[in-house]
Each structure stands twice: as structure tokens, then as C-alpha cells.
Specification:
The chain is mainly β. It has 2 domains: about 325 residues, Neuraminidase (6 Propeller), CATH 2.120.10; about 350 residues, Neuraminidase (6 Propeller), CATH 2.120.10. The protein has a 4-stranded antiparallel sheet with strand order 1-58-57-56, with no helix packed on it. Strands 3-4-5-6 form a 4-stranded antiparallel sheet, with no helix packed on it.
Length: about 750
Amino acid sequence: MTSQTGRRVGAIVRAGGLTSAVVLLTAAAVGPATVTWTLSKPQIPQARNGSLAAESCPGTNACIAVGSGYSPSGPARTLAEAWNGTTWAIQATPNPPGSKGSNLDAVACPAATACAAVGTYVDSSGTQRPLAEAWNGSTWTIRATPDQPGSHGTVLDGVSCTAASACIAVGYYEDVSSQDYPQAFAESWNGQAWHILPAPDTAGVQSPLYAVSCTSPTTCIAVGAATSGTGVNTPLAAAWNGTAWTILPAIGPSGSSQIALNGVSCTAADACTAVGSYTQPPTFARHTLAEAWNGSSWKIQPTPNPDGYASLAAVSCISASACTAVGSKALTAAVLAEAWNGSTWTAQQAPVPAGTSALTAVSCAAGACGAVGYAGPPAGTRHVLAEARTGGTWALQAAPSPLGALPASLGGVSCTSASSCVAVGTSTAQGWNGTRWRDLSAAGPPGAASINLTGVSCAAASACLAVGFYLKSGGGLGMLAETWNGTTWTLRPPIRPGGMVGDLTGVSCATARACMAVGSYVNSSGARLALAESWNGTAWTIRPTAQPANSDGSELNGVSCTAAGSCTAVGDYHVVRSSDLELAEAWNGTAWSVEPTPGTNGTRILNSVSCTAPAACAAVGYQGGGPLAETWNGTTWTARTPPSPKNSADVFLFGVSCVAASDCTAVGEYSLTNTGFGATLAEAWDGTAWHLQQTVGPSNTEIVGLTGVSCMPGGACTAVGSYGPSQPGFGAFVPLAEQRN
């Protein structure tokens, strides 16, 4: 029997911007024995998901909305839906061949059979490229869009069309020569091709454009934000006259800062309304912002600011005295709608779906408005949201969400044989039979919005205990534990110390009736303290942990038990007025005691531990940006510094499994300094030194890592983790598994 604990979610800082690679290590770097890791494919949980970013309604009963949704395999895919006055229906949209994620961010329809949608896709190198598609009343077609020469990535965020053959799209590109700062970017469509337009002169500061509104092919206003070298945002507005852009100095409320204009709508060249948000000292809470352009200057229009913290994302005007703006309230994470009557902005009552919701776009025609966005649990998959206002009343519309990947990951794994493993993680639990993975459908408490199982330990194939936490639908965290009998999961609610918030991150079972789970909780004074609870097959019992001297907080990330009365747990503690140091504690069946560890300064965190005997343990983690490993001989913890792969940075070890004192395997992740890509990591301990092993990471991914491992005598190991996109919004994290035979 081998048990493997998970790692703490939130306490471990994952290396950002990692992209997978098949890593070839030099022969000298690889251990003496030749081993091979291979990929297997865990089941990707499926769920309805998606969000709508923009909407255009050329008529009361004719609207097109666009956005994105996760594909069944994980990457984001373009999404378009049509409203016929009665129902919303998903339309088939293309995605650029070979893209690693794509979405549509804006749409403009001068007629029901003529729409232009723009957005972004990620190419095979991981670079963002502009995307444009056209609707002819029956089919969406990709239209080639030129990229800014020499750019490191280009995004289209807004589009406006005055005719099927006259569109302007705006966004930004990242200029390598200006430290990747986003620079204003614009293109025009003439019915045959897209062409790059001269960019507004923004004096070289960061200047993304988010929206544009045109009243003729040669009369447009675009808005966004300009960021100075000190990081202060000021509102950005520019006018297009058919030949060049002219900056129109936009304004913010007196004393305000961090101002951005997110949407604009013009009914004439001298009648435009722009909306967005700003922050206001001393609280720096974000407030709604609206301002009007009269052809010569901008004037701020006071807006309601529900909850004292809100933002407007888009606006649609049918005249200078009739505008509707939408957005979200941050404190309640709910939709927001406001209306302008020519003199005053007034908050409107829009239906608020359960969980988190926001309206990101609005389109009005003939007294009716449609708005779209997303809704969903506070953490988890977003769902398409659509609302409509007829007269003064908003109502929800039933808009379908496409079937796609449910964001998921595997954090811990426990194997009782090479062909019998149980792995758990975020939104999923899976079983391995030596040939394939299958979904085990982990249970969630009533009212749970999402579950996260971070550790699992199996005393037998049909006797496993998994622990973690769950997110409540109304917000807040709850502790989670459940047992697997080979057929079903059964909830086993842990004890909340003093009724306080806590979570469990690791578990180890010496037998089915002798398990120890560890984690942390927040006490009544607000300090986070290490937590340990034992399970006897029937009930949980809190086992008070020891607090290291000179510390003001601690947490346990992993545990390994060789008997009911013999466990070792590891984690970290915070030294008063200093940094985090590794923590190791021992359970003797009666009490926990702190074991001295070699760390004395700098950040050193232990994530996982595996013991083959009370006096034979190995623990792994990270120190600063490098790997950390230590061994226990019954008396002393000794640092055993693992090697780092060549040209690597941000090297982390998250899981370890030992079948003997001189036979351990650790897994994790790292990034490559020469490419910024990343890879899975495995190292082997032979009793004297750690040796790198060659692993394989999934191709065409950005962030990838292994977080748990479980090994059998003879060399067979199963490691689990996740991979997904580094660009937010371009895909879902999906489970990953690798085997070593």
C-alpha cells in the first residue's frame, strides 16, 4: 500500500506562464537507470459552459451575440448565438486551424444578414493574433486579418460597422521594442479585405482601445485607457476622420485615478456617450463612469454607483437622450444596468442570477434592449447569460451554453497496485485500471458550488479516504472528506475547529480505520494554524498540533503514516517578522511534536512527505525558486538538494512517494529560461542523491505540472496534475497523468 497526499492550493505559488515541452535531459542529468514516463489521458469532465462578450441587434427580434466557450478537450472556442424574437440558438462558428484557443469579443450587425465579429486566437507558438469572422445570414466565415508588423501579439476588442462593406475594428498590439506595452491598434474592412489603419499617436504610453462606434465610414470614436510609466490609468478617446486619428482628451472626476473607458456609442458625430470606471481615494473603490462628447469636449454625467463599487462595461444609445449601460457590481458580484434619459442616469432593476454574474454588452433598438454576459458559481464554469428590456422591465432570456470541458485538475493519487489507482482533484475523481482512466464522480455537499479534493489515501482498492475543501454556492469555504468503497463516494464531514474556517490538504491511511488528515484553519484571532484530524472509520477526532517557537502561523500540507500511532506531517510556518520556513511534526499516537529542520532563513516550504518506516522519510517542496528535499533518519532531517533541469527557473516539487528509504520519486514542474515554456518534472532518490528523469508533457499547452505521485515496488509510478492555457480566457485546465513502468 502506498499513499500520496496532495498539496495546498493557495499556499503554493505556481510558476506563471509555463508552456509544456517534451524535455530532453542530457545523459549526465538522468539517473543511472533508464526509465520512461508515458502520458495517459484522464477523463475530462464535461459541462455546459460559455460566456457572451458582445451583442448587436439590427432589429427588435434580431440579435447576434458572440463570445467563447471551452471545447470538450479544453481549449476555448468561438461562440455565436442568434435571437429570433422567441429563442436563442447556437450558430456554428469556425476557429483558426491549429489554434490553441480562440474567442470573439465584439460584433456589429448593420443588417440581420451582415455581421462582423472580431476577437483573438492563440497560434501554435502561444502568441495572440487578431481574429475576424463574417456572418452572411447563414454561415460564419473567417476573414484574414493582418497583424501589426513586428508585434508580439495583437488583440481586437471592438468593432463598428455602418454597412456590410464598412467596418472599423480596434484593439491593441504588444510592441517588443516598447517592453511589450500594449499600443493602440485599428483595422478597417472595405467588403473585400481588412487593412491596418494608422494608429493614434499616444506618445508611446500603454494605450489599448476597447471599443469603437462609427456614424459613417469616416466618422468614428474609439475609447480605452492610457497608462503612464508610473502605472496610472487615464481615459483615452480618439476620433477617426477617414484618414487619421485625433486624440480627444477625455476626463475623469476630480481627484480620481485608474480611469478606463470600456464602451462607447455615438448617434451622431457630435453625440457620443462613453462609459467605464474609476477609483477614488481614500478607499480606491471602483466607481461607475459616464461622459458625453458634444463635438468639442467631454462632459462627465453623474451615475449611480450601487454597492459603492461597480463598473460599466458597455453602452448603447438610440438618441442623445436615450442610452442604456450595463456592467457589474463588485461587492455582490451581480449584474448592473443603468439608463440615461437626457438629464439623469438611473439604476434599473435587472434580474440577478444566482452566484456570480455580469453584463458585458448591450444593444438597443426601437425602445427595446438586449444585454448579454455570463453567470455562474463564485468559482467554476461560467454560463451564458442573456437579458432583454422591453419598456422599463428587464427579464431573463433562456440562452443555451455549449457543452465543453469543465475546468478540472488532479492533485493527489494513491495506488494499491500498478493497475489500481484513485486520483482526486478539482471537480473530478478518477480511477486507473492499468489501461485507462474512468470517472468516479466524487460527491459534493448540498449547496456546494465546486469541490476540490487535494489528497487521497487508499488502504485497499475499495477503501480510500479523500480530503479537501469545497466552495459554498453563497460564498465561503467548507471542509470536505469522503470515502470510496469501490463503487460510491460517501461524505464524511470533518470537524471544524471551534467552528472556524479550515481546509484539509493531505491524508494518509495506515489502515482503513486508521487515517490522519492535515491542513490548517483560521482561529478566532485571524491566525492560520496547522490542523490534524484522525479518522477511525466512523468518526473524526481533532489531534492538536504543535506550534513552532517564534512563529505566528503554520500549516501542514502533507502527511505519511506507517502505523496508527506513527505519522509524519510537513508544511511550513511563518517566523515572526520574517519569512516562511519548512515545518515537520511527528505523531506518536498521543501527541504531535515539532522535529528540527535544517532551514534557517529564506522561504522554504515542504509540500509532501512519504515514509517507509518511522525513521525513514523523504519530504519535498521548494525554496525560493528552486527545489527542496530533505530526508529523516529517525533523529535528524537532512537537506538533500535535488538538481534543477538545465536552463530552468521556478522549479517546484509538489509530490513524493517512497517504496524504500533508498527508492523515492518526486514530481513537480519548472519553466525553461530560454523559451518561457514549461514542463513536468520527475526526480528519483537512490539513497545518496537525487537524479533527474525524463518526463513527457502534453504538446501545445502553456501551463503544465505534476502535483501528486504514487509508486509501487519494482519501479511503477503514477503521477497526476493538470495543464492548460497561460492566456486567461483561452481554455480550461484539464487533468494530466503520466506513468512510469
